[in-house]
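Now read this:
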Amino acid sequence: MDESEGNVDKLLCFIQGNPGSHLRRIKREMGISMGTVQYHLDKLEKMGRVTSTRRGLYKYYYPAGLFRENEKDILEVLTHETARKILMFIIEQNSPSQTDIVNSVRISARSISWHVGRLIALKMIKEIKDGKYKRYQLQDDAKDILTLLRNYYPSVWDKWSIRVVEMFLSLSSSRVE
């Protein structure tokens, strides 16, 4: 096997383990030049081994035939740390306000608004009017989000699940008192 075939196999393995990755992340994490990554990803797409979706300036890559469109949207969001933090906070808190999200994620209200708008457009969350406040909830069951998070972001899943368990334990201990 020549070096070119080795790069193709390595890229395919990377995408299988990190579905929803964009070009720059693949380049950065694999340590391969941009031109080489682009060439081999194009080759993999033509072979039908990977598929891609473009959103804005980013093109996201997935193993062919494994994910439904809504799962691709979820994986795309999970690859971006800020969007992932916002989504996880909404799951954890169930109906937080924008102010709650700003205080938790610690970025500007404008940035939060942009990310939340994107999550709404992807039909992952919905906005609920609560008097003068807007609150955010998951659009549907969180099962797909949690499954993809557990399978493809195990370190994030571990930290998050420990936090949720600690939260429930503190709630149950305060009820006992």
Summary: The mean pLDDT is 88.
